[in-house]
């Protein structure tokens, strides 16, 4: 599958997995569920690492000392934007690795604020989520109040 198509499809498509189907009576964060999220997170981390590597190679290949100041400024702006994006991706990789550690320590899938289950669907949409939807909404409201 082409990279641009993979990006547009979302995290589950990148990992090549279907949405998790819970079995009747299955315990929350069963070994099967943990394996499902480990696969998603590992594939996502690998895809981000490939992007970072590709950017480094692109910048090395494209680096040129243009005599025209406008061309040079344009290239510097492009590189600056790419570096900001890659920095964001590096932070996301760290968050993914933190989440993988939570899976290993049996702390994954529960809200860090109130301790309730975050939920399979929310975690599939945002595997690095560490707050349930209620606590996240409350945190966003508080953040908006602090800003304005």
From TrEMBL:
Presence of the UniProt keyword Coiled coil in the record: yes
PROSITE patterns: ZF_DKSA_1 (PS01102), ZF_DKSA_2 (PS51128)
Residue span(s) of domain DnaK suppressor protein DksA N-terminal: 33-103
Keyword Zinc-finger: yes
Gene Ontology terms: biological process: regulation of gene expression
Regions annotated as coiled coil: none
Residue stretches making up the Zinc finger DksA/TraR C4-type domain: 108-139
GO molecular function: zinc ion binding
Purpose: Transcription factor that acts by binding directly to the RNA polymerase (RNAP). Required for negative regulation of rRNA expression and positive regulation of several amino acid biosynthesis promoters. Also required for regulation of fis expression.
Summary of subunit composition and partner proteins: Interacts directly with the RNA polymerase.
Family affiliation: Belongs to the DksA family.
Name of the protein this chain belongs to: RNA polymerase-binding transcription factor DksA
Lineage of the organism: Bacteria, Pseudomonadati, Pseudomonadota, Gammaproteobacteria, Vibrionales
The encoding gene: dksA
